[in-house]
Design brief:
Length: 94
């Protein structure tokens, strides 16, 4: 078992977590594959809980498509990062 402080660990990612999914071809593919999956299996609109949503890349993507999104994350810094995003329609909760 580790004594790692998970909250501090994720807080330290800060803005880099938002950028992670656009960093290189592999992470861009992760985003594309995940959004393709969500697009295939979610209804066209509705309520979505993005639990562990970090900086909210997926929350924003869902909100832009008409979903009522609530973002919840262990890291208050990640939630603040999401709340600073322009056009952020998702409701963040720390």
């Amino acid at each position: 078992m580790t004594d790692m402080d998970l909250r501090r660990y994720y807080d330290e990612f800060g803005e880099s977590e938002w950028e992670r999914l656009d960093r290189d071809p592999v992470t861009r593919m992760e985003f594309e594959n995940t959004t393709d999956y969500l697009d295939q299996y979610l209804p066209d609109s509705g309520r979505v809980l993005d639990a562990g949503g970090a900086a909210g890349r997926y929350s924003l993507w869902l909100a832009e498509r008409g979903h009522d999104v609530t973002l919840v994350d262990f890291s208050a810094e990640q939630v603040r990062s999401h709340a600073r995003r322009p056009r952020s329609a998702a409701s963040p909760i720390a």
